[in-house]
């Protein structure tokens, strides 16, 4: 027994001991258990007493076996008096049946392996002996990993066996103790030589890579308990000898060869080919010979940098790794524990495991003549290793037969199901291949997986021949009278579309346009786009879609990029071409009946070859310059025809073409529908989402196929889910692509459309619309997203690493597309083409590097995981944050800018800009947003802009976007006073105040935001169109308030919306915002009923802002006396000039609304302002003035019913007495569905009064002569005197159109789109001043169907 008094003093833990102790804390990732090694041996003729005595001798001999770990993270040796004989537990199982013996064995095994050895108690090891039969014993050994390293363990086992065999054996004296060595090492770390070792690592800290990022199934912190599953690959002596010989021929040590195999397998699944492994070594005795033979835990760890890109040959990579290992081992006095602590101080402290992939060679040096120590007669039955903060622990151990056991201990629960087995199988294949003659290891990709990928990417046959327009021309010949394109404004048959597009083609040819030319189509959504595109292709040229709503600067740039001589436009949506000297052709004027007739017989002729360019679609570019994707006919045709066949598209189908022409989904909408003889349904365009309008249009026109980004399908189902089945569009198939498909969406779609087919598609604009598909059946609740699926026919899609090697199942890699769908490249941009369109060096195949990340499932299905670069998808559009940053930096007040995205409720993302302003010229966020809006498409304008003094940088000098966003959010919160979860209502108690509080609560719930303040912006907090729609529905359900969808955009703050709902400032506002947009404002005056609700469809169809002036009485001024019509107009004129101080103005109105608009224009003229006026079936000659109350109710209810009073209502009016007339009329109107239940008796009386007062004001009014210009649209199916002569007598510049409608259908949903187009054309054609001859034209001459 020892007597040294110094031995009683605590001494420090080694770095590895400290790491093990910290890892036992449940607060540490992959921790929360006792680090333990457990071994179970089957032993013959075991003597427990001799074994116990031998252990006691060892405890006497080695003070380290009397060590305990202290709570203050130190250790000390127990004094002599604290030591008791070793408690070797012995149990006799010989009397138990076989099942009882097995249960007893399992109980001990589970306890010792799972619970481990308490590192704060004594002893730090445990032995249990169980007697199974007379001569057979089972020995269980468990040891805390803080106690011994593998060399010391082997040494002690040898001494124990000697003492067990001969208790009188005299062993050599112990020269040095572990306690002395640890103290010496602590002192050594203060020396200059040690500091030199540290400087070696310090200069590498910023360049050291992280651990390999293998696919994980769950957050590691949530794994409890952490259990490791052992897998063993046994190399027989002959296999091991062959492997050693091969390695030595390659000048690689055998353990290093196995280390390289481990690295190669991990690299096969890792996200990056460069990473750090955690190498457990016992190199300290080599560096410090005085430590040799010391019993204790002298192991240490080393962060070994692996780079699988350094060479193409396995053995060269192994030699490079060996050289790196030798360099690092020379400085292994500095442990990985200290290095990772320093890294954490630089990169941020976390509880995560820093280096969880461990390699540990425990192979003993082979001595000639075998092991002199000898071994007991035993067989290892089981073993477990529980190491904290480790995911995979690869150990090499000598086997009893002279071979080697290559062991993996893996936390299987951390990885996707089956991954650990796949990886270990690859490890075994590589090990066995090293012993073969070829000596070149196989790749880690499982052969079965390789076969599946080859099958999925095999050619389906020759790609289809021809051009995109060929299918349409065949259908036009076979079914000329079948509807080809349907809008609310116009229906074109195949014959008409063929004739109109031939006219465009002929005109383009006359302007010298042909093959090789690119023609911009600068338009808003409409049938003219289809005519234009077909005309361009039939002329042999290619088209380039350009949204007319883009900023003029952007349009001008795209025209320059196209080198265009001719631009195709619409007369009713004038395009600002930014002063470019090009010929602008108005396609809707070319497409009139007379033009179509003149070109119908014009021979089309072959337009060109399948290899010609078909279109160029521009997407966002990271340099600030958009890039044009140039796609040939044959590429797009392969996709189009496959999708048509896949969905059985035919003449009975109607495809709802919701996507913008600038979005490549429109390519299939057009050419897929027209090639199949189906009908393309185009909804009205607009600057804002219009789910109500889409749902109505899809229902009205019988849409059967819906193709859109998922967010639009979500909005559709929100709108129609509560409608009766007969009021929903008859959609049979949903094609969803362009963004993540929420996992809950497919089931919602099938619930709403039972039997409907839901398919996810994916790909890239650079690969002709789509390249993969996945038929969505049951959605697994565990899925994070809907998978990509498999490649489409004649296209390839593979998940590859940076070296173009196939990735195994679950491994993340880059998605590469090849095959028939590839684009030609980027228009006039060879550098970016070369960067993204690459060649597989092994196969020579041309590939497009998408920049998307994906992985294979074990069955070969591809799962999309996001982007490898900064490109993101917002609202279905590809967004390069660099383009926004580059534009923001052109503002004189912006020094720097970083753009990132934030997740918002509903699974969508929003753009956020963090701006560093110039010192004395900081722009306000609103100012900067407007600056960007003038230069970028709306989808590129960030929803939120923050100002920061500087952008934080990461350790490698790049902008740390996560920290920047966190700092910006913190600064924004600091600028706002601390308030409750929802802001309290302002003092005063008025309705607006109460609404503010209520709206705060609704917003907080919808947006999942804890704090809402009155001036918070709905969209800045993460709101989007889908959430705005849900807000409208919540307001309707909870407040009984019908809020126009567009009003959420007009009043996006709580305070603003509350004021709109309550008009709480005491001033009655009559102007109601009905729509917003970038085009020209349209101002509408109410009809005789006083409401502007009849204009909702017209507002949706208009591309600019729309305001409706409703009756002041309906707006809230109940005390107002009935004014004259001129007085009404004067009030509206005053509000109009507050909204827009100066003209020219565009005014319109239906029925009495037209007369009001005319009067407002007259008053504006007197103030020196110009206006254009559109009268929609307004009559100043045939006026109805009710003779009594009964007649007043009848007139009101007839108007409410759309001109046809229901018979029950008419009967109720006829039979009701005078005293109960109003009540009877109100009851009958509600029963007939003319009024909602919310309109009470007082509300009904007010409506009737307003209607009667307005009729009287209209009858008394005498219009002011001289207003010009004026368009009068007359409903020609009304029995009355012609209203035109009376208007012509007072309007010097009058255009008249007669439409085959009645007084109410002329403003119906079906007529509103063409009415919007006609108003826009009138506004473009007629100047606000000057005289023109009075004209009257038939509608068909202007492209309006009769």
First and last CA, distance: 114 Å
Please report the total strand number as a whole number: 48
The fold-level CATH name of the domain at 202-369 and 388-445 is Chloramphenicol Acetyltransferase
Quickly name the level 1 CATH class of the domain at 202-369 and 388-445. Answer: Alpha Beta
Q: Main beta sheet, described?
A: 9 strands, mixed
Helical fraction: 25-40%
Principal-axis shape equals elongated
Protein traits:
single chain; 1346 residues; alpha/beta; Chloramphenicol Acetyltransferase; Rossmann fold; 42 helices; 48 strands; disordered C terminus
Give a quick summary of the entry.
The protein has about 1350 residues and is an alpha/beta fold.
Can you characterise this structure?
This protein has 1346 residues and is of the alpha/beta class. Among the domains are: 5-181, 2-Layer Sandwich (Chloramphenicol Acetyltransferase), CATH 3.30.559; 202-369 and 388-445, Nonribosomal peptide synthetase, condensation domain (Chloramphenicol Acetyltransferase, 2-Layer Sandwich); 492-605, Rossmann fold, CATH 3.40.50; 880-950, GMP Synthetase, Chain A, domain 3 (2-Layer Sandwich), CATH 3.30.300.30; 976-1066, ACP-like (Non-ribosomal Peptide Synthetase Peptidyl Carrier Protein, Chain A), CATH 1.10.1200.10; 1068-1180 and 1261-1346, Rossmann fold (3-Layer(aba) Sandwich). Helices cover 36% and strands 19% of the residues. It is built from 42 helices and 48 strands. The strands form eleven sheets. It has a nine-stranded mixed beta sheet with strand order 16-15-24-23-25-26-27-28-29, sandwiched between helices. The protein has an eight-stranded mixed beta sheet with strand order 41-43-42-44-45-46-47-48, with helices on both faces. Helix 23 (710-720) links the parallel strand 25 and strand 26. Helix 15 (494-510) crosses helix 19 (593-599), helix 22 packs across helix 23 (710-720) and helix 37 crosses helix 40 (1241-1260). The longest helix has 20 residues, at 1241-1260. The chain is elongated, with a radius of gyration of 40 Å. Mean pLDDT is 86; it is low at 367-374, 592-603, 976-989, 1064-1068 and 1328-1346. It comes from Micromonospora eburnea. This is Amino acid adenylation domain-containing protein. One of its GO terms (cellular component) is cytoplasm. Its cofactor is pantetheine 4'-phosphate. Pathway: Siderophore biosynthesis.
């Amino acid at each position: 027994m020892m007597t040294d008094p110094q031995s009683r003093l605590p001494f420090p833990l080694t770095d590895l001991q400290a790491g093990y102790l910290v890892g036992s804390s449940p607060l540490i990732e992959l921790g929360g258990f006792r680090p333990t090694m457990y071994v179970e041996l089957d032993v013959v003729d075991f003597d427990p007493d001799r074994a116990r005595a031998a252990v006691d001798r060892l405890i006497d001999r080695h003070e380290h076996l009397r060590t305990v770990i202290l709570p203050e993270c130190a250790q000390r040796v127990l004094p002599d008096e604290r030591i008791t004989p070793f408690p070797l537990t012995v149990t006799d199982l010989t009397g138990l049946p076989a099942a009882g013996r097995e249960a007893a064995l399992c109980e001990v095994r589970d306890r010792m392996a799972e619970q481990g050895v308490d590192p704060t108690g004594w002893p730090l090891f445990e032995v249990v002996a169980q007697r199974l039969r007379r001569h057979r014993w089972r020995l269980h050994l468990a040891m805390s990993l803080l106690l011994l390293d593998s060399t010391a363990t082997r040494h002690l086992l040898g001494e124990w066996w000697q003492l067990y065999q001969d208790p009188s054996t005299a062993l050599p004296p112990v020269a040095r103790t572990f306690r002395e060595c640890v103290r010496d090492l602590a002192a050594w770390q203060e020396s200059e030589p040690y500091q030199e070792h540290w400087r070696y690592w310090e200069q590498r800290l910023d360049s050291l890579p992280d651990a390999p990022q293998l696919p994980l199934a769950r957050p590691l912190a949530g794994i409890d308990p952490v259990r490791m599953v052992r897998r063993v690959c046994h190399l027989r002596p002959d296999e091991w000898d062959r492997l050693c010989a091969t390695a030595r021929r390659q000048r690689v040590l055998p353990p290093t060869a196995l280390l390289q195999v481990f690295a190669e397998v991990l690299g096969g699944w890792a996200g990056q080919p460069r990473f750090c492994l955690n190498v457990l070594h016992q190199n300290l005795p080599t560096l410090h010979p005085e430590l040799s033979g010391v019993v204790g835990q002298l192991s240490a760890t080393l962060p070994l940098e692996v780079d699988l890109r350094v060479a193409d040959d396995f053995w060269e990579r192994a030699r490079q790794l060996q050289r790196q290992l030798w360099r690092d081992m020379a400085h292994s006095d500095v442990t990985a524990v200290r290095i990772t602590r320093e890294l954490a101080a630089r990169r941020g402290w976390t509880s995560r495991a820093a280096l969880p992939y461990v390699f540990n060679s425990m192979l003993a040096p082979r001595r000639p003549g075998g092991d002199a120590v000898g071994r007991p007669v035993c067989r290892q039955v089981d073993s477990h290793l529980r190491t904290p903060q480790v995911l995979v622990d690869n150990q090499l151990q000598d086997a009893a037969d002279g071979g080697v056991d290559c062991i993996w201990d893996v936390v299987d629960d951390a990885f996707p199901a089956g991954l650990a087995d796949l990886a270990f199988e690859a490890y075994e294949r590589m090990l066995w291949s090293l012993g073969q003659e070829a000596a070149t290891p196989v790749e880690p990709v499982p052969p079965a997986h390789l076969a599946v990928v080859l099958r999925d990417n095999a050619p389906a046959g020759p790609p289809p021949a021809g051009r995109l327009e060929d299918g349409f021309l065949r259908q036009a010949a076979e079914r000329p009278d079948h509807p080809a394109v349907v809008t609310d404004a116009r229906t074109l048959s195949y014959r008409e579309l063929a004739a109109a597009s031939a006219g465009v083609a002929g005109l383009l040819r006359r302007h010298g346009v042909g093959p090789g030319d690119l023609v911009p189509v600068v338009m808003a959504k409409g049938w003219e786009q289809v005519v234009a595109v077909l005309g361009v292709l039939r002329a042999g040229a290619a088209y380039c879609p350009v949204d007319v709503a883009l900023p003029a600067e952007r349009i001008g740039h795209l025209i320059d990029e196209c080198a265009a001589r001719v631009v195709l436009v619409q007369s009713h949506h004038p395009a600002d071409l930014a002063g470019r000297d090009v010929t602008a052709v108005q396609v809707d004027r070319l497409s009139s009946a007379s033009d179509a007739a003149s070109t119908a017989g014009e021979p089309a002729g072959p337009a060109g070859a399948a290899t010609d360019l078909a279109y160029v679609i521009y997407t966002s570019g990271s340099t600030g310059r958009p890039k044009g994707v140039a796609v040939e006919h044959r590429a797009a045709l392969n996709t189009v025809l496959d999708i048509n066949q896949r969905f059985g598209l035919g003449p009975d189908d109607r495809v709802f073409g919701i996507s913008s022409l600038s979005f490549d989904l429109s390519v299939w909408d057009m050419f897929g529908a027209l090639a199949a003889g189906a009908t393309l349904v185009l909804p009205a365009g607009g600057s804002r989402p219009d789910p109500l309008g889409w749902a109505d249009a899809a229902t009205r026109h019988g849409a059967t196929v819906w193709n859109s980004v998922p967010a639009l399908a979500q909005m559709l189902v929100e709108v129609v889910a509560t409608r009766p089945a007969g009021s929903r569009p008859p959609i049979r198939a949903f094609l969803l692509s362009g963004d993540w498909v929420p996992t809950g969406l497919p089931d919602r779609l099938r619930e709403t459309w039972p039997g409907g087919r839901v398919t996810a598609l994916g790909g890239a604009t650079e690969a002709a619309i789509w390249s993969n598909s996945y038929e969505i059946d049951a959605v697994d609740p565990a899925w994070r997203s809907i998978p990509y699926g498999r490649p489409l026919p004649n296209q390839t899609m593979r998940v590859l690493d940076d070296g173009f090697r196939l990735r195994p199942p679950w491994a993340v890699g880059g998605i590469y597309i090849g095959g028939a769908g590839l684009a030609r490249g980027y228009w006039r941009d060879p550098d970016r083409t070369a960067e993204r369109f690459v060649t597989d060096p092994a196969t020579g195949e041309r590939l497009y590097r998408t920049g998307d990340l994906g992985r294979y499932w074990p069955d070969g299905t591809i799962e999309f995981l996001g982007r490898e670069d900064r490109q993101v998808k917002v609202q279905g559009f590809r967004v390069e944050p660099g383009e926004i940053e580059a534009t923001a930096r052109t503002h004189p007040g912006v020094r720097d800018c970083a753009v990132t995205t934030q997740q918002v409720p509903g699974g969508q993302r929003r753009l956020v800009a963090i701006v560093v302003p110039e010192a004395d010229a900081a722009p306000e966020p609103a100012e900067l947003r407007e600056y960007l809006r003038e230069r970028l498409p709306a989808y590129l304008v960030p929803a939120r802009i923050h100002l920061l003094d500087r952008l934080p940088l990461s350790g490698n000098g790049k902008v740390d976007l996560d920290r920047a966003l966190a700092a910006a959010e913190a600064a924004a919160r600091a600028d706002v006073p601390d308030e409750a979860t929802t802001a309290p209502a302002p003092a005063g108690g008025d309705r607006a105040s109460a609404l503010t509080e209520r709206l705060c609560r609704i917003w907080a719930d919808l947006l999942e935001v804890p704090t809402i303040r009155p001036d918070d912006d709905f969209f800045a907090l993460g709101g989007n169109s889908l959430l705005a729609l849900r807000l409208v529905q919540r307001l309707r359900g909870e407040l009984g308030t019908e809020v126009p969808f567009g009003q959420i955009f007009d009043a996006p703050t709580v305070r603003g919306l509350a004021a709109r709902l309550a008009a709480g400032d005491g001033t009655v506002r009559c102007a109601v915002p009905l729509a917003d947009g970038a085009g020209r404002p349209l101002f509408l005056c109410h009809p005789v009923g006083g409401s502007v609700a009849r204009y909702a469809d017209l507002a949706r169809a208009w591309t600019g802002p729309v305001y409706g002036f409703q009756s002041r009485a309906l707006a809230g001024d109940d005390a107002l006396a009935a004014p004259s019509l001129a007085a009404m107009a004067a009030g509206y004129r005053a509000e109009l000039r507050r909204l827009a101080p100066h003209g020219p103005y565009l005014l319109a109105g239906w029925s009495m609304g037209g007369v009001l608009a005319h009067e407002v224009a007259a008053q504006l003229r007197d103030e020196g302002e110009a206006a254009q006026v559109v009268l929609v079936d307004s009559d100043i000659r045939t006026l109805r003035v009710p003779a009594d109350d009964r007649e007043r109710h009848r007139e009101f209810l007839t108007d409410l019913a759309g001109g046809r009073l229901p018979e029950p209502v008419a009967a109720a009016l006829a039979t009701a007495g005078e005293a109960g007339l109003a009540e009877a009329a109100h009851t009958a109107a509600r029963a007939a569905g003319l009024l909602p239940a919310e309109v009470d008796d007082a509300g009904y009386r007010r409506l009737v009064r307003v209607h009667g007062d307005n009729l009287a004001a209209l009858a008394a009014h005498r219009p002011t002569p001289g207003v010009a210009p004026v368009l009068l649209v007359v409903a020609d199916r009304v029995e009355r005197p012609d209203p035109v002569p009376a208007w012509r007598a007072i309007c010097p510049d009058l255009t008249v159109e007669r439409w085959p409608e009645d007084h109410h259908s002329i403003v119906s949903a079906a007529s509103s789109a063409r009415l919007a187009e006609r108003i826009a054309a009138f506004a473009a054609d007629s100047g606000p001043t000057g005289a023109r001859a009075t004209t009257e034209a038939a509608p068909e001459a202007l492209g309006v169907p009769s």
